[in-house]
Amino acid sequence: MRHLHLGKLLLVVFSLLLACTVSARKPIKTLLITGQNNHNWQVSHVVLKQILENSGRFDVDFAVSPGQGKDMSGFVLDFTPYQLVVLDYNGDSWPEETNRRFLEFVQNGGGVVIYHAADNAFSKWPEFNKICALGGWEGRNENAGPYVYWQDGKLIKDSSAGVGGSHGRQHEYVLNGRNKVHPIVKGLPVKWRHAQDELYDRMRGPGNIQDILYTAYSEKETNGSGREEPLVFTVDYGNARIFHTMLGHAGPTPEDNIAMQCTGFQVLLLRGAEWAATGKVTQKVPKDFPTETSCSLRKNYKEN
Ligand SMILES: [Zn+2]
Q1: Tell me: the pLDDT tens digits for 138-177?
Q2: Residue 15 located in a structural domain
Q3: How far is the CA of 234 from the centre of ligand 1 (A)?
Q4: What is the CA(7)–ligand 1 centre distance, in A?
């Protein structure tokens, strides 16, 4: 009898300990919006979910829109269950009600991650362009706002006429840190080598960058701008926490997807997403982060 009671007691204590451990880090409820993109969203949205969920920190639901040109009226989204919205969408306008609810979510301090070509979307929606700070293509030019680049230790806003958004050929390049204290980048190398990817240049918009985290030099030799381009930053938009990364052009398959397999891309996504959702970053600096001279890949989208 005594043994049985002791056994039961231990079981109860063990269960309580387990419950405490689990509740100490409840996954961040995340909504990933996709379904239309001039990119391979069929690969990117699955891979983004894997990166986020493999960390054990996020629980990702998809909102997949109807295809391009189809009836969008039923694509009305409920943001209320979520702490974080990840945008992997570049396509037809959402219904007015979804736009209204999205702005409500963001303006009430919601967390947002703008990923790669999501900043191409909705060039004619001024409020969306403020949420991105910078965007490209889709008819953008000087009317979308200044071309913002880094020079002499600060961001320059150049309002002269020109295209909004372009990139040269894909290549490996070094990211240059411009902030050492922001939680997203604290402890990460100031310079690190990104695996082969596009390097967005000549991006335009309201330019309301809050903290510029990383820039990269867009060489003329790769058909770039000859400027130091802002690629990873946070956005100044009321109470919202918005993390914008222009990295991570999707490949043809999850296995053949080098830009998203880059450890630097994945770590910044995870840290940016946690910060956007909570205002903090509790992740350690990983040992497999790229250095200035060598790339590092997580081909299975998880920490080794
Ligand atoms: Zn791309």
Answers
A1: 999 999 999 999 999 999 999 999 999 999 999 999 999 9
A2: no
A3: 20
A4: 58
